[in-house]
Amino acid sequence: MDNNEIYNQFINETLPVDEMKKYVNILSEDESLANEKFIQVGDKGTWYYEALVLTKRGYPKIIDVIPKLFVWLEDMNWPGAEEIWKMLSTLPRDVLIENFEQAIGKAVEENDYGWMYWLYAFAKENNIKATDLKNKTLYSTIKEKRL
User: Fold this and answer.
1) Residue 11: how many other CB atoms lie within 10 Å
2) Which residue spans within the chain are E strands per DSSP?
3) How far apart are the first and last CA of the chain?
4) How far is CA 9 from CA 1, 64, 116, in A?
């Protein structure tokens, strides 16, 4: 079975946990498969494993999808959200701040109070302050509008 077939099974089928973990290892090593293919693509049942593929690839290999990873923090009940949170917390500070600020902008633009809540919690845990951002009002907005 080639890696495209493995990917299709990984995304589209409910497989035993041991098999999914084996596929995580295979797919995380296959750089011919775009990172984009693991951003909440399959059924929610595969999101945890998609997050594992991305976290195993790690930074800087996943730099192209970091803004989209912050979308995973819209709901911390989503499978894989905790793994993505932990991985984002390990990013170099400049990369973290730049992408975090983009996420805040999008959450505010979409008026997504739940996402703002989690982004504020992420900021607190990662010691991100308003003074770290170019647009300092974004920070106060998520602080005020969180649930």
Assistant:
1) 17
2) none
3) 48
4) 10, 24, 34
CA 52, CA 33: separation in Å to the nearest integer? 15
Whether the full predicted model's pTM is greater than 0.85, yes or no, is: yes
The two structure tokens encoding residue 123: 């900021």
Residue 106: strand, helix, or coil: helix
If you average pLDDT over each of 10-19, 40-49, 90-99, which comes out highest? 90-99
Q: What is the pLDDT of residues 39-89, one digit of tens each?
A: 999 889 899 999 999 999 999 999 999 999 999 999 999 999 999 999 999
What DSSP state is assigned to residue 1?
-
CA-nearest of 1, 71, 2 to 36 is: 71
Using CA atoms, how far apart are residues 57 and 78, in angstroms rounded to an integer?
20
For residues 136 and 90, the model is more confident at 90
Q: Which two tokens stand for residue 99?
A: 């992408």
Distance between CA atoms of residues 58 and 52, nearest Å: 10
Over pLDDT 90: what percentage of the chain?
Answer: 78
Report residue 109 as tokens.
């633009």
Q: Where are the domains of the chain?
A: 1-69, 92-147
Residue showing tokens 């495209």: 4
